[in-house]
């Protein structure tokens, strides 16, 4: 029986560096890269651009589209996805992949500064408060490791690669 393909989800609020690190990890690991923002509807993007957070009615088709994409493309993948709610994270655990998460955690003020300096993204810094409010902290979810984003990008990449070896330990002949 073939092993399930691996899915590594880089999660965190907007501005935490998910996309940047996910792209780097996909390249390092030889995995496909998947950006959750690409699966939002035009309506959802417009709503966020107006500074209005999404409700579950707009999140549901987004989650369904991402899960369907993964099921139709069962290849090792790194996904940049906010993962704010536990039940939404659970959906990715159920798509048939060997799924693990890295939570990019950082201080509100640091992330807000990042968002204010970011150009060309529909997500305004004003929504950061709602994302922190909506974030259900990973508790009793052993497949999630936390990385603090205060480190420089090269250090963060190194730490993420080390975390992956904890998330997916190398199997020996005895294991």
Relevant terms:
175 residues, alpha/beta, 5-stranded parallel beta sheet, 15% strand, 7 helices, Rossmann fold, globular, single chain
Explain how this protein is built.
The chain has 175 residues and is of the alpha/beta class. The chain has a single domain (6-167), classed as P-loop containing nucleotide triphosphate hydrolases (Rossmann fold), CATH 3.40.50.300. It has helices at 18-29, 42-49, 56-72, 86-93, 108-117, 128-134, 153-167; strands at 6-11, 32-35, 77-80, 98-105, 144-148. It has a 5-stranded parallel sheet, covered by helices on one side. The protein is globular.
What percentage of amino acids are in beta strands? 15-25%
Q: Which overall shape is indicated by the principal axes computed on the Cα atoms?
A: globular
Find the CATH superfamily. Answer: P-loop containing nucleotide triphosphate hydrolases
Task: Give the overall pLDDT as a whole number.
Answer: 87
Number of helices: 7
Kindly report the spatial arrangement of strands forming the biggest sheet.
Answer: 2-3-1-4-5
Number of domains: 1
Tell me about the largest β-sheet: 5 strands, parallel
CATH class: Alpha Beta
Provide the structure class: alpha/beta
* Helix-residue proportion: 40-55%
One letter per element, helices H and strands E, the order comes to EHEHHEHEHHEH
The first-to-last residue Cα distance is 17 Å
- Cα-based radius of gyration, to the nearest Å: 16 Å
CATH architecture: 3-Layer(aba) Sandwich
